Amino acid sequence: MGVNFRGVLYGLQAFVPHMLAHGEEGHIVNTASLAGLMPGGGAYGVSKHAVLALTENLYQDLEARGSKLSASALCPGVVQTKIMEAERNRPDEFGAALELGEEQRTMLSAAFSGAMSPEDVAELVLEAIVEQRCYVLPHTGLDEIVRGRTEQVLARGAPLRIELDLEEMMRRRAAGELV
Q: pTM of the full predicted structure?
């Protein structure tokens, strides 16, 4: 929560007042995650849900005040980043991170293999800014997960259980789908 949510919150608190005072056009992009639109995900999912809700509120508040600023929430799936090296920033007070087993490392390696590049995500973010869209979901091949969760909520059912099939994901990526 400290990095994923409070980092975004504190950044907004520090910069939005100055951006508003300048009176110029501008756009804020907060990085949430597809995890912010999916059920589960533990503390990571909670933090990304929070970023999404914060950005939705910011978007509406800026629009309501007739501001020249707007906001978007970037909700990517897997992107070729160094996120798996993020433990280097883990505060000592939380202790060592859990060690991944060989099977988990192999699964993560497969998930990142062929993932979308940061440059491709950046192009989609720019399009969303130009079009003044609040939601940026680069991985269109995963829309069924978002749709499935929404349907479960509206059916007043149990949370959708998501089990990703890495082999299927790799086949879909090889076919050019953005998953």
A: 0.85
